Amino acid sequence: MPTDEVVIEATGNSMAVSRAVAVRGAGGDRQSAAGEGDRPRPRETDKVDAGTLANLYAAGYLPEIWTPDAATERRRRLVARRYQIVRHRTRLKNEIHAILSAHLVPKCPHADLFNRSGRTWLERQSLPDDERAAIERGLRGTGSPWGGSRRAGSRDRVERDRRRPPSGG
To answer: Where are the domains of the chain?
Structure first.
């Protein structure tokens, strides 16, 4: 009904739910209870949450939220994915450094352990087979044959993605 008001709890998929509700023609404000997660709850049930949200909305305590357009949401997803990739690569590189440290391998004399010269130096280090295998797995996971940066290719992909029109949210 067009006179219905919709209250959506701010969770991981609240934007998708908001879009689905808007497409189906529900009227009224889309609201968020972003502050609700800050307080401890005696029990976590959907009925209690729904009742709390309804009471807060009826009292006028829920602010209306801004809903981003499809292009903005797409850029947010791209940034979030890139952040996850960078964190993963950092974790792998830290693991490699930890292995080297655990076996008292001195610091790499090259500017970067993960470029071509650093990788060549790394191959000459004496390490147990299982640790060498772990390092090789980590180097493969960092994104290039030598575990180096892929910035130029990343920049090209970002520019291409920026020019591409959004695909339905």
So the answer is: 6-58, 70-163
